[in-house]
Amino acid sequence: MLELCKKCIDRLGISADVKEVEGSECMLCLGLLWRTEEIARQIAESLEEYEFDTFQIGSRLEGSVKALEEYIFEKYGLTTEKSLKYHFNRELTKAFAALTGKSPDREPDVTIIYNIEKMDYETRIASLYIYGRYKKRVRNIPQTRWLCSACDGKGCEVCGFTGKRYPTSVEELIAEPCRRMAEGSYAVLHGAGREDVDARMLGNGRPFIVEIQNPKKRHIDLEKLEEIINREARGKVAVCCMKFAKARDVAFIKNAKFRKVYRAIVEFDREVSREELEDALKVLSNRVIEQYTPKRVEHRRANLLRKRRTYGIKLLLHRGNKAVIEIEAESGLYIKELVSGDEGRTRPSLSEVLNNYAKVVKLDVIRVEGGI
């Protein structure tokens, strides 16, 4: 005979072969349906150091409790709306909301998973996401942390025991103040593409999102955060337009095909006339460029054929064997290879059209369209 408490009998709607017992003696809910307020209080106390506005509660049913419920459901032909998980989650959600004043939500700041069999729970703190745009005003700073290839970040003589190939990065200059202000455990930067280490990011800045993991603070002053980042970066990097974002915005930022405008100083093997150069740029404007993965990055990226479009290329300055050109192109086009040809891996290229080897001496990104 089943020994069930009144709450389990009522929710299941069964009476045959059932003996009503006290909540703590219930074979199915183990008294948990009678302790939701107590459990809510325990969870709230464990989260006292975290700021949050929304939550979601779920539960796990396993072991003997799960086996017993499956037996009861099969015997009496019951539906999932009568399950212990459904009722426990609902009652605990109501108790937790009433106690804390927080709101249940499908995209919560905090997720609580209660293990009914073990009578224990775990909490998951959602990352905090902050959107902005950054300018990189100096060269030779990578966008993200770049580990030393000689020691794989462990520290060695090659990297001066820093574990890094470069002393700092855009990510460190932006993400660390964010992590510090939110009191998170770690922070990473997600950029809308990336510029080369030796290229600057100017103009309206590159869209980015900083993801701060396990933040204790969510209600942070973004104007003050901007001020701190810009002061501590000491002119190397500057941020603006910061606002709170959602987890789904990261995928958009990383995958969106934002148009980009570049300014390149180009040097040729031999002098080229202005007319010849302008004609070559017309050939390369508003057309699809086929590029295999550049030789300079093939050690870390798959050798794929990429097709990207140029929208417009303008000659800004020309003197002898040097020129300054402006290129508007689809996201993902390798600009240095568009100029050099990369030994035939990019076609057409400026070098190919002119039959005159050309290379980018300096490169700046001056506009990235789009954002959130």
Can you describe what's shown?
The longest helix is centred in the N-terminal third of the chain and has 17 residues, at 84-100. Strands 7, 8, 9, 10, 11, 12, 13, 14, 15 and 16 form a 10-stranded mixed beta sheet that branches. This protein has a 4-stranded mixed beta sheet with strand order 4-3-5-6. The protein has 372 residues and is α+β, with helices and mostly antiparallel strands. It is elongated, with a radius of gyration of 30 Å. The model has no long low-confidence stretch (mean pLDDT 94). It has 10 helices and 16 strands. The chain folds into 3 domains: 2-124, 2-Layer Sandwich (VC0802-like), CATH 3.30.2130; 128-255, Alpha-Beta Plaits; 260-368, Alpha-Beta Plaits (2-Layer Sandwich). A hairpin with a 4-residue loop joins strand 5 and strand 6. Residues 40-115 form the Pus10 THUMP domain. Its EC number is 5.4.99.25. It catalyses: uridine(54) in tRNA = pseudouridine(54) in tRNA; uridine(55) in tRNA = pseudouridine(55) in tRNA.
